[in-house]
């Protein structure tokens, strides 16, 4: 497995848990605003066997969970073996994915406690192509959502709001789509924040939305009954559920 790096202990990646974070290399999308863009180069990082990774996790006595992120973890051929091993270590297991490889998700779902799925834009081909700069089969993402929306997983769908790239109507479309399919997890509206991985050439192209701006986007939903909860994740309040008191 190709690993671009790890964080030995994180309290931010999985809510209310101490986690080891594993960053896999490679992605099948090419979003300009990606904060882990160095991981998109397949030659970076280092190759590890599944046993080597499991040994590193087992020796980390301060964690209760593992977060596998990237890049896009489902591109790693030995991901099912790693997930099986982590579950045998009795660690809570979370994976981040863009949802484009439902066949892999189906293989590993017995080992997972949590899935965090990034929806970049409303699920239509034109907008997806514009943002990801790739041809994306939307039906594959819908299949992944269907697999994870079973009530047995902690399922999070999140959208990173990038000013100058997204519009409030994009969020409304996503929320309406989730309501129609009876999504039962948590939707997280995430604040874009520049990181060095984006690259200095693009530093001024994308803007970080302010906390009040994100709140105002969600105001039309303050009195709407939904089958899922809505959260904001930003540098002002961290990870927080939106309810009537917020507005």
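-> sequence recovered:
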């Amino acid at each position: 497995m190709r690993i671009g790096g790890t964080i030995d202990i994180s309290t931010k990646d999985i809510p209310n848990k101490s986690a080891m974070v594993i960053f896999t290399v490679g992605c099948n999308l090419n979003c300009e605003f990606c904060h882990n863009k160095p991981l998109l180069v397949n030659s970076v990082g280092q190759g590890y066997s599944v046993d080597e990774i499991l040994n590193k996790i087992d020796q980390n006595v301060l964690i209760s969970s593992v977060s596998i992120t990237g890049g896009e973890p489902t591109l790693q051929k030995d991901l099912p073996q790693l997930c099986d091993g982590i579950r045998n270590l009795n660690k809570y297991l979370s994976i981040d994915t863009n949802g484009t490889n439902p066949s892999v998700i189906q293989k590993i779902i017995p080992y997972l406690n949590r899935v965090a799925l990034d929806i970049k834009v409303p699920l239509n081909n034109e907008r997806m192509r514009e943002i990801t700069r790739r041809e994306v089969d939307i039906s594959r993402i819908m299949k992944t959502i269907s697999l994870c929306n079973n009530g047995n997983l902690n399922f999070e769908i999140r959208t990173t709001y990038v000013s100058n790239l997204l519009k409030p109507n994009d969020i409304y479309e996503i929320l309406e789509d989730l309501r129609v399919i009876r999504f039962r997890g948590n939707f997280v509206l995430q604040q874009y924040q520049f990181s060095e991985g984006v690259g200095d050439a693009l530093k001024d192209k994308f803007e970080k939305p302010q906390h009040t701006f994100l709140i105002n986007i969600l105001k039309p939903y303050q009195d709407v009954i939904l089958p899922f909860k809505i959260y904001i994740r930003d540098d002002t309040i961290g990870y927080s559920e939106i309810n009537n008191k917020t507005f």
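The beta strands are 2-10, 19-24, 46-47, 65-69, 92-97, 114-118, 154-161, 186-191, 229-234, 238-241.
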